[in-house]
Amino acid sequence: MGKTGADPGYRSAVFASRDLFRRVVYAVGITSAESRGSSAVAQRLASAVSRN
Q1: Cα 23 to Cα 4: distance, rounded to the nearest angstrom
Q2: Sheet harboring 23-29: ordered strands across?
Q3: Contacts of 52 (CB under 8 A, 6+ apart)
Q4: What is the rounded CA–CA span in Å between residue 41 and residue 18?
Q5: Residue 41, Cα to own-chain centre: how many angstroms?
Q6: Rounded Cα distance, 51 and 15, in Å
Q7: How do strand 2-7 and strand 23-29 relate by DSSP bridges?
Q8: Which residues pair with 14 in a beta bridge?
Q9: What is the pTM of this model?
Q10: What is the DSSP annotation of the chain?
């Protein structure tokens, strides 16, 4: 499970396994407010959290 979001100047994400044993939260400043879509970091974190 997870949620990503972005506003001009920053990007954030929250991910958790279904049993909430693993949780990851991150927020980072980005260099360009024009960046769109999920970052590679967010995709790797989601993958790591969802593994059993």
Answers
A1: 14
A2: 2-7, 10-16, 23-29
A3: 17
A4: 20
A5: 7
A6: 12
A7: unpaired
A8: 3, 25
A9: 0.55
A10: -EEEEEETTEEEEEEE-TTSSSEEEEEEE-S-TT--S--HHHHHHHHHHH--
Residue for token digits 């100047």? 9
Model confidence band, residue 5 (pLDDT cutoffs 50, 70, 90): confident
For 17-45, how does the pLDDT look when each residue is reduced to its tens digit (9 = 90+)?
Answer: 888 888 888 887 766 555 555 677 777 77
- For residues 51 and 28, what is the distance between their CA atoms, to the nearest angstrom? 24
Inter-CA distances, 3 with 8, 27, 49, 50, Å: 17, 12, 13, 13
Q: Which residue has the tokens 């360009």?
A: 32
Say which amino acid occupies 24: V
Q: How confident is the model at residue 52 (pLDDT cuts 50, 70, 90)?
A: low
